[in-house]
Specification:
By secondary structure, the protein is an alpha+beta fold. It is built from four helices and ten strands, in the order βααβαββββββββα.
Amino acid sequence: MNVSHTLLKHRVPGLSADPEQVADALRRAGFEVSCIEPLAELLRPIVVARVESVTQHPNADRLKVCVVNDGTEQSLQIVTGASNVVAGAYYPVIRSGVRLPNGTKIKRGKMRGEVSEGMLGSADELELGTDHAGLLTLPGAPAPGTPLPEVIETPGVVFAIDGNPTVDEIVRALGGEAPEPEAPAPAG
């Protein structure tokens, strides 16, 4: 499992700014930290994409079908539920086969019958903040296909932790609190 220092600092008040001290605290809590990687290296396979067109998904009211230019000869089709996606804007694209900083591998698939050849990324999915409300809009007009760390600052590190702990287990072990579970929606 990979977990970013930024996420841990957000969830654990008073957590050290020194990654080595955090790694030591994780080890003392019983976690095996196999390495500390710069976030920029994990984000290098994620590139700039320009959204060429956005159309309503034919089978889902909350989804959009986008054609994106990722700097290759062939455009990609990406399905997204992000409300802030607009044609002509620039966003990070995670192509099929690429891993997010948390270790999740993105796969080509179908969403409600439409092919999606990757995903457009939000700040929290890329470990660049906690905003998950929409896609991370990139400033200016960077060249499609440019690695993300060459376009925006990508500070911080990610801890690779052996095994399958959850983020909440790690946060609790470091003295933070897990978020309150959401109350179920009222019936009827």
